[in-house]
Amino acid sequence: MIEMLVYLGLFSILILLITEIFFSALDVQLESRSTSDVEQDGRFILARLMYDIENTQSITTPASAGQQNSTLQITVNGIGYTYAVNSGDLQLTNDKGVNILNSYDITVSNLTFTRLGVLGKPTITVNLTLTSKTKRTAGAESKSYQTTMGLR
């Protein structure tokens, strides 16, 4: 009977240790996933903005150098594009409809476009913050991005 109690005690300790290791591994996976999601969305959004801004014929909003706006309106190959945040999603609107550029697990905030004038060619400074919706023990993963892009 005593041996049975000792084995039961040791088995309980072993099960507790294995459970703790399992939950720690889950926390690490969540943390890694949220960081990866933020980085991946950041790269995609900035690449899309850079492609469209480099190929634009005109910038409608912000209208003049020094102006800052939460939306960007440009014309690419005769088609009007509008970038704006709506309910935490970065939306690209054109004649083909509305596309959401961030993934489901990411919210976009603090989006600003500032028009600059450098040597006659307009440039746009883009600021935005991406935040993961994934619940993790260390809090939400958040990263701010700032870059300047110019017309070709």
Quick structural summary:
The chain has 152 residues and is of the alpha+beta class. The protein has one helix and nine strands; from the N terminus they run H-E-E-E-E-E-E-E-E-E.
Task: Explain how this protein is built.
The protein is of the alpha+beta class and about 150 residues long. It has one domain. About 35% of the residues lie in helices and about 40% in strands. It has 1 helix and 9 strands; from the N terminus they run αβββββββββ. The strands form 2 sheets. Strands 1-3-4-5-6 form a 5-stranded antiparallel β-sheet, with no helix packed on it. A hairpin with a 2-residue loop joins strand 4 and strand 5. The longest helix is centred in the first third of the chain and has 53 residues. The protein is rod-shaped and about 90 Å long. It starts with a helix and ends with a strand.
